[in-house]
């Protein structure tokens, strides 16, 4: 009987603030970090499950403590008992009444629960010998519905409605798997757009992105309007009319400010405006969208749970949504969000970058293509070429497209040496710095 | 120069699950707990500031770790530097870009920030020799406006509009202070209504509540409809037509379930229905309110921040709101919420009970009466007669009314012996239990 013998946690941080990589209007000096969790087993082959929460530095220790607080939910239990019913496992963690008080279903505790659930999915798909996207795709519609907690969703999506969506996809799965393996999944890139970059660097990277096959690029905005107008127009000149340009304000504006800021950008022909205001402000997004139409509005990378996504869709507040693999309650809650989006006919452009977010979220987008919507060419997964070398099964990008992962699991496993060297605050990378930037 | 020399934290838990005190439809076995924080100074008179986050057991260690992570914001700084501009201090903590990623402004990290901000207000009002409600009441309208972070609020409340509300109150402050000190502030009681109680115990406690002078009682509902109908009707028979009866579903229902559940309760004549569904579901509350009108709908004790309250008010989703002293970003964010409620003309019935929540929130309601709305007889502060003996300056309830606190500070300080005995897991109360219920 294979059992889970340990839940190990690691506070892993990368001193990215030294190079201004990842800088935006709200986050001037992030140290990209992962609160990393491993579910170890007594299986002779070393079977384990890996998960992480992405943070940007300070507080990664708190996030790691939240992971450690979940130890008693898993240690001593059989792998069969957990991965045999991942829906029940997710409901058990999210439903724990005492932990629920700390959210409910939001913030540090919810992200920790999501990472442990993701680690259990990693374990399950490794044991099945399949990459996670394929593990999900091979489930029946009924099995997928069983993964979803419909609490608070039934006024927008019932289990029967979800089943209908999934059953419609069922006959096409085989052909879609072949298509995905042959074509990959579109990516877009944020690499040119960080606020800390000069115009020249932005243009150079934008040209490079187009040469590399990307059809959409994204720029950070929101610090100074005149800079944004200049940068967006420069980017449009640089990439020409056929490449989509999105912008990301990272929650910088109030509703009125967003409207005033976006009107002078209308002539750039933006593909979308991401996070114009607070990620909690459903009605605010609806008001902005109405005022700046036809400029498309989006949000979601900080969407705390399925209840916020439900409302964004019900209110017609967004033209498209971002999902994030490490923000909500794991694969299960992201399946709920993907099904909601499918029900409302809204496109999903997964958020990635950070540490390991590309590795994780590609699986969800691909599972959505095969088992839910059958759509991929009208959407794209974010890509930032950053920190992938620390992962055992890094993403593979070719001609601006994500190749479908083939290794078993959820691609969250990091190299032992990367973890060891970047442990905060005593890993060699941090102890070598004169002042710990994340402290 | 008085400086802050330490931020000390304590994981304090009470084994309340042993007696089913505090049981409701979502929380069957809470162990009422406090992640407790002390800002110590080098002042010769022992000046310190006290704050806490209320939790219900598991995870209180994570919450305590989040408090500890804020040490570098305060230790080594002068007391003048912090309490001289509490608005700037609150914006600094809430605006830290790296910590913000862990919410933003919600969950474990936000509650920790709120507790440290509250401890700073405690320190400020102690130093001024005033109870917190009076410390706020004695501020000018301009000073109160400076406490508020208007980010994400200006589509509903601008600084100028807030100033207008506060200036209208200014000429009446002196008379209101006298009135408050003479009359106290109405309380309502949840003591009879816990789900774990028998009908007989509920009736006995309801009769006692009326004899004690309470004009409103609250019952927990949401586990079984037939029980709720019976208990509500029994309660109505017991207290007669002149006592208000509220019910609290503690987030138990989906939107459709709430509507179906509440219709058979309509003849009870409920004063309000609290937390019918997810605290995040603004549109859901609006749909429920519309469907069950005229039964009043409320929420707020789990309202994560001012953005959710703004939307509840904008959407006309609630008839009244609860505020909680330890859920949002401290006194500053609660001032924002009180000003929003005043602007929309919605009554506030503060959430209390738990550990120290009565002690804290009474100050906010009283400050609202004196400096903001001038209203108190059409609203009430929750009261549960529970755990007050652990506080140095416990609430005083007389004839169903809160007496205005007179001791300097925010009333959050606990007795040293209470902290020591209830430290988890090694305090004497926990080490004497055969199995640590909170573990």
Question: What do these coordinates show?
Answer:
Two copies of one chain form a homodimer. With 439 residues, chain A is of the alpha/beta class. The first copy, chain A, folds into two domains: 4-139, Enolase-like, domain 1 (2-Layer Sandwich); 171-417, Alpha-Beta Barrel (TIM Barrel). Chain A has helices spanning 60-68, 71-74, 79-83, 86-95, 97-100, 107-127, 132-137, 141-147, 159-169, 173-183, 199-211, 225-239, 255-262, 282-292, 306-314, 330-344, 357-373, 416-422, 428-431, and strands at 4-13, 33-41, 48-55, 185-193, 216-220, 244-248, 273-274, 297-299, 320-321, 347-348, 381-383, 397-398, 401-402. In chain A, the strands form two sheets. In chain A, strands 4, 5, 6, 7, 8, 9, 10, 11, 12 and 13 form a ten-stranded mixed beta sheet that branches. In chain A, strands 1-2-3 form a three-stranded antiparallel beta sheet. At the A-B interface, α1, α5, α6, α13 and α14 of A face α1, α5, α6, α13 and α14 of B.
Question: Which helices and strands, and how do they pair?
Answer:
The structure is a homodimer of 439-residue chains.
Chain A: E1 4-13, E2 33-41, E3 48-55, H1 60-68, H2 71-74, H3 79-83, H4 86-95, H5 97-100, H6 107-127, H7 132-137, H8 141-147, H9 159-169, H10 173-183, E4 185-193, H11 199-211, E5 216-220, H12 225-239, E6 244-248, H13 255-262, E7 273-274, H14 282-292, E8 297-299, H15 306-314, E9 320-321, H16 330-344, E10 347-348, H17 357-373, E11 381-383, E12 397-398, E13 401-402, H18 416-422, H19 428-431
Helix pairs in contact in A: 1-6, 4-6, 6-16, 8-9, 9-17, 10-17, 11-12, 13-14, 15-16, 16-17
């Amino acid at each position: 009987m294979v059992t889970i013998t340990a839940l190990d946690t690691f506070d892993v941080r990368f001193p990215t603030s030294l190079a201004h990589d990842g800088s935006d209007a709200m986050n001037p000096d992030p140290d990209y970090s992962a609160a990393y969790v491993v579910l170890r087993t007594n299986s002779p082959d070393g079977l384990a499950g890996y998960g992480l929460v992405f943070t940007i530095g300070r507080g990664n220790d708190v996030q790691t403590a939240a992971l450690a607080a979940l130890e008693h939910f898993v240690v001593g239990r059989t792998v069969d008992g957990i991965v045999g019913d991942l829906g029940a496992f997710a409901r058990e963690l999210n439903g724990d009444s005492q932990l629920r008080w700390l959210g409910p279903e939001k913030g540090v505790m919810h992200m920790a629960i999501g990472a442990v659930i993701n680690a259990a999915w990693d374990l399950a798909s490794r044991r099945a010998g399949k990459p996670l996207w394929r593990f999900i795709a091979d489930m029946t519609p009924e099995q997928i519905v069983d993964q979803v907690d419909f609490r608070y969703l039934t006024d927008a999506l019932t289990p029967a409605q979800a089943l209908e969506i999934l059953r419609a996809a069922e006959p096409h799965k085989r052909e879609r798997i072949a298509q995905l393996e042959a074509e990959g999944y579109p990516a877009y890139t944020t690499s040119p757009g960080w606020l800390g970059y000069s115009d020249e660097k932005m243009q150079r990277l934008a040209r490079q992105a187009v040469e590399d096959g990307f059809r959409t690029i994204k720029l950070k905005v929101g610090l100074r309007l005149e800079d944004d107008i200049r940068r967006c127009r420069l980017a449009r000149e640089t990439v020409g009319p056929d490449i989509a340009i999105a912008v990301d304000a990272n929650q910088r504006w109030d509703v009125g400010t967003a409207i005033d800021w976006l009107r002078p950008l209308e002539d750039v022909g933006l593909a979308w405006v991401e996070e114009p205001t607070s990620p909690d402000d459903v009605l605010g997004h609806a008001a902005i969208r109405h005022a700046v139409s036809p400029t498309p509005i989006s949000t979601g990378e900080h969407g705390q749970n399925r209840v916020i996504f439900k409302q964004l869709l019900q209110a017609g507040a967004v033209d498209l949504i971002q999902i994030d693999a490490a923000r909500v309650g794991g694969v299960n809650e992201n399946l709920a969000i993907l099904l909601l989006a499918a029900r409302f006919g809204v496109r999903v452009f997964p958020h990635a970058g950070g540490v390991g977010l590309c590795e994780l979220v590609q699986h969800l987008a691909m599972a959505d293509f095969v088992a839910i919507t059958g759509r991929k060419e009208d959407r794209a997964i974010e890509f930032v070429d950053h920190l992938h070398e620390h992962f055992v099964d890094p993403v593979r990008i070719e001609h601006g497209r994500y190749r479908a992962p083939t290794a078993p699991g959820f691609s969250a496993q990091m190299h032992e040496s990367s973890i060891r060297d970047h442990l905060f605050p005593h890993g060699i990378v941090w102890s070598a710095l004169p002042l710990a930037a994340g402290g």
